[in-house]
């Protein structure tokens, strides 16, 4: 018997179908061991020796593999064709060797697609394990461990509130933070544009003023309203005729097939997928045999695949869409790793696979790969200049016409922050024509700061700089979110205060190790290891020789000295010059105190030097002490009409709040975000401080119904049962009848806090039961329900991207598992058997949360 080891059970099931009865295929469920999350797992003094530890939840699977290996005549390691796949195979071999269960013959096979032909061809061409790739894996893993477990303790002790640092994670965070700084320091500049709405032959078009009074007009030339109005008047008074028509043919070539990075970027732009969601769906498509391996830097396609693509093009389109020669692409990415084929369909005869997000991602991959072998698009770009009778003023209209669509008939690449000014269609005009002038407008504009990074643009920037690996970008970005160093709003990354402070600390004390050139250079060295051009221990020694003394030096400094240095380093951001020339560090509350950065139990903040006499503070992330969004200190809203005490608006660690009184007797309340007028007034403050509000006694029980604001928003409470209110205003408006109805709805829904709750989204009718499926927000996260069965969304599923089919599958799976709860012993066995299956999505990566000590893990790419 021959034993074959792969990563996931889905992959194992598919491959076993292709092999004969002499083969038995088992899954390792991803990585089977890792470095323990404790000091000493890597010993620099002993040649960087590593102490590996088997995952606790892999014991049963490892025993099954070992038992089968003892009976096997040959072990075939068929994990993924990349560095991580090579590492998994090596780990399996080493564990079996330690258990004295390693068969006499051990072979390594790789295939780029899980198809019968690819698998059988790979089985016929076995090889030995690639020691260079294994060394590169060990070097990368040791490097990330040493950075995380050496630098993170420095952060914990010297920078309260900081959670971790990582070799690639910290550099990616620096990109986000630097963009935030650029946006904050950006000074908008006013400018005006003048344009005329014209018409020729019944077709309208827009022409912009490009020459005024004989002078060329650039974007920022007209900077004042007076000049803009004068230019508008001149255009309105002039009679413009066509002076020049310039037509230029343009050819556009199709983009290359997807790599890991470009797939993540395009899925983010066109489908709204996060990088982690894209990789999870792509992994499943690969394991189902629909696409080739999805972790690759290569843009080339196999010769047989190119032939299949050209055949599909010929069958779908006429001959003009098929170029005479096949297109060949070369990788341009910096630090491109081990060459693999691009991501493509395994069969170009299948234009549809699966449903929901699987179908959408497959469609994107299919069209991109097919379009890469199609003919170029031919366009005609036209520029028309219109001059007035005096020859002093010129209007210009630009546009383009698609002469032959070529690959654009199937696919057009998305862009971040694109500008389509040149894509308009113009009417046909000739010199001397005098189009009708319908309207002239002068519009005010302001220059815009650079946009915040989206997942697509951040991944693109990391790849351009040669930082990290495309296969690790998804996990790197996820770590930044999990650590609360960044937040994502409308698919854009915003740097949180904790992320900005960590970046400032690293830039000040570890500048070299978060520099882009150094990080990219380290990637080059790791690639040299995988290519056999460098020795892995020598690369680690060179890094450790400088890094360890630097961390020891910083560790010896007092936290107060660290804070003082950061205060100086961040002065331009925290205390920018004021327009009136006054001292930007002057305390706005007491007047004579000086503001400075301080460190506290919950992180950094700005405080007055006159503390405790002056208790002015503001958040670390608020630049300056004036301007939009800044905290100018406690604000007295007025006096309470009954007590006469001052009601003060303040800002704390958890956001703005109101306070009446002092010390232990003070009454406080958080300021809700949904106030009707958007601002905190004295009237609203009095209302909020009066909470909880008793609506009245329930007509059936005689017990009080209370309205209040809690952790999850406004609510009703009666006899220990809750009902949700829709807004803060409703707390003060809800009457007895409405309150009784809402509480009854809560009881009928069976949820303690779900009564009266509106669904986040109605997804539609269940495709099999026709019950309406809704997406709801629960106390422990989002879930879907068909009115009978509730199914919690896995962490890997983005609720904003959830499809009807995926929701139906979750409900079906939950309903099928429900009866198992009635048993006593059987459910435990069933649950234990299913634990590893949860890892199939990321077979090449080990989810850190599965391992108990992983809570202390601080290194991440």
From TrEMBL:
Organism, per UniProt?
A: Sphingobium rhizovicinum
Keywords of this entry: DNA-binding, Isomerase, Magnesium, Metal-binding, Topoisomerase, Zinc, Zinc-finger
Task: Please explain the role this protein plays, according to its UniProt record.
Answer: Releases the supercoiling and torsional tension of DNA, which is introduced during the DNA replication and transcription, by transiently cleaving and rejoining one strand of the DNA duplex. Introduces a single-strand break via transesterification at a target site in duplex DNA. The scissile phosphodiester is attacked by the catalytic tyrosine of the enzyme, resulting in the formation of a DNA-(5'-phosphotyrosyl)-enzyme intermediate and the expulsion of a 3'-OH DNA strand. The free DNA strand then undergoes passage around the unbroken strand, thus removing DNA supercoils.
Catalysed reactions, semicolon-separated? ATP-independent breakage of single-stranded DNA, followed by passage and rejoining
- Here the segments flagged for biased composition (Basic residues) are 821-837
Q: What is the designated name of this protein?
A: DNA topoisomerase 1
For this chain, the family text in UniProt reads:
Belongs to the type IA topoisomerase family.
Residues in domain Topo IA-type catalytic? 130-551
Annotated ranges, domain Toprim: 1-114
């Amino acid at each position: 018997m021959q034993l074959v080891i792969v990563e996931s059970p889905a992959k194992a099931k598919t491959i076993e179908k292709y092999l004969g009865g002499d083969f038995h295929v088992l899954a390792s469920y991803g990585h089977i061991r890792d470095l323990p999350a404790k000091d000493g797992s890597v010993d620099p003094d002993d040649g960087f020796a590593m102490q590996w530890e088997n995952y606790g939840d892999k014991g049963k699977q490892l025993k099954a593999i070992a038992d089968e290996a003892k009976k096997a005549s040959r072990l075939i390691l068929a994990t993924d064709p990349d560095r991580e796949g090579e590492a998994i195979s090596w780990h399996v071999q080493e564990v079996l060797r330690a258990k004295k269960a390693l068969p006499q013959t051990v072979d390594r096979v790789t295939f780029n697609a899980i198809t019968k032909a690819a698998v059988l061809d790979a089985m016929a061409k076995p090889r030995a394990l690639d020691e260079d790739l294994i060394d590169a894996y060990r070097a990368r893993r040791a490097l990330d461990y040493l950075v995380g477990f050496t630098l993170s303790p420095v952060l914990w002790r010297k920078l309260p509130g900081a959670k971790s640092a990582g070799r690639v994670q910290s550099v990616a965070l620096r990109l986000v933070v630097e963009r935030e700084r650029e946006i904050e320091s950006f000074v908008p500049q006013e400018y005006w544009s003048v344009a005329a709405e014209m018409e020729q032959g019944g077709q309208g078009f827009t022409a912009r003023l490009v020459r005024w009074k004989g002078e060329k007009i650039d974007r920022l030339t007209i900077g004042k309203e007076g000049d803009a109005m004068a230019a508008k008047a001149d255009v309105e008074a002039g009679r413009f005729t066509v002076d020049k028509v310039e037509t230029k043919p343009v050819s556009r070539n199709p983009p290359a097939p997807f790599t890991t990075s470009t797939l993540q970027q395009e899925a983010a732009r066109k489908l709204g997928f996060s990088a982690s969601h894209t990789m999870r769906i792509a992994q499943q498509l690969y394991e189902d045999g629909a696409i080739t391996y999805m972790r690759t830097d290569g843009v080339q396609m196999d010769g047989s695949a190119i032939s299949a693509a050209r055949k599909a093009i010929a069958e779908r389109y006429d001959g003009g869409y098929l170029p005479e020669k096949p297109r060949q692409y070369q990788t341009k990415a910096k630090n491109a790793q081990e060459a693999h084929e691009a991501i493509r369909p395994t069969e170009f005869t299948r234009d549809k696979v699966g449903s929901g997000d699987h179908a959408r991602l497959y469609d994107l991959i299919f069209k991109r790969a097919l379009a890469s072998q199609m003919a170029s698009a031919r366009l005609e770009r036209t520029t028309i200049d219109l001059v007035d009778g005096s020859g002093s003023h010129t209007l210009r209209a630009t546009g383009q016409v698609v002469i032959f669509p070529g690959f654009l008939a199937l696919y057009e690449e998305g862009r971040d922050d694109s500008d389509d000014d040149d894509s308009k269609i113009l009417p046909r005009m000739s010199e001397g024509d005098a189009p009708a002038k319908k309207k002239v407008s002068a519009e005010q504009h302001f220059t815009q700061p650079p946009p915040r990074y989206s997942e697509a643009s951040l991944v693109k920037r990391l790849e351009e700089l040669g930082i990290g690996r495309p296969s690790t970008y998804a996990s790197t970005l996820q770590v930044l979110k999990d650590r609360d160093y960044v937040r994502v709003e409308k698919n854009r990354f915003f740097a949180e205060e904790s992320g900005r402070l960590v970046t400032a600390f690293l830039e000040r004390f570890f500048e070299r190790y978060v520099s882009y050139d150094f990080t990219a250079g380290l990637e080059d060295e790791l690639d040299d290891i995988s290519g056999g051009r460098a020795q892995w221990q020598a690369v680690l020694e060179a890094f450790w020789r400088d890094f360890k003394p630097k961390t020891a030096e910083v560790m010896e400094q007092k936290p107060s000295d660290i804070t003082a240095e950061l205060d100086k380093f961040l002065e331009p951001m925290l205390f920018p010059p004021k327009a009136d020339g006054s001292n930007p560090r002057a305390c706005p509350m007491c007047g004579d105190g000086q503001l400075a950065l301080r460190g506290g139990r919950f992180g950094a903040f700005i405080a007055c030097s006159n503390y405790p006499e002056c208790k002015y503070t503001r958040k670390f992330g608020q630049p300056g002490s004036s301007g939009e969004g800044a905290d100018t200190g406690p604000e007295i809203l007025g006096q309470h009409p009954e007590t006469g005490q001052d009601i003060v608006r303040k800002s704390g660690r958890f956001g703005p709040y109101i306070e009446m009184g002092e010390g232990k007797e003070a009454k406080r309340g958080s300021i809700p975000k949904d106030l009707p007028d958007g601002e905190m007034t004295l009237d609203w403050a009095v209302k909020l401080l009066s909470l909880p509000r008793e609506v009245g006694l329930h007509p059936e029980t005689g017990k009080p119904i209370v309205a209040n604001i809690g952790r999850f928003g406004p609510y009703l409470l009666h006899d220990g049962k809750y009902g949700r209110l829709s807004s803060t205003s409703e707390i003060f408006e809800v009457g007895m009848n409405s309150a009784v109805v809402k509480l009854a709805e809560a009881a009928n829904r069976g949820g303690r806090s779900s009564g009266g709750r509106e669904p986040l989204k109605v997804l539609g009718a269940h495709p099999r039961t026709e019950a309406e499926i809704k997406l709801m927000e629960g106390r422990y996260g989002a879930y879907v329900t068909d009115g009978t069965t509730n199914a919690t969304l896995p962490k890997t599923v983005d609720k904003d991207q959830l499809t009807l089919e995926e929701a139906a599958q979750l409900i079906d799976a939950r309903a099928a598992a429900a009866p198992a709860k009635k048993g006593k012993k059987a459910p435990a066995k069933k649950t234990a058997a299913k634990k590893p299956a949860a890892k199939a999505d990321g077979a090449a990566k080990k989810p850190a949360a599965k391992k108990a000590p992983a809570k202390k893990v601080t290194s991440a790419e």
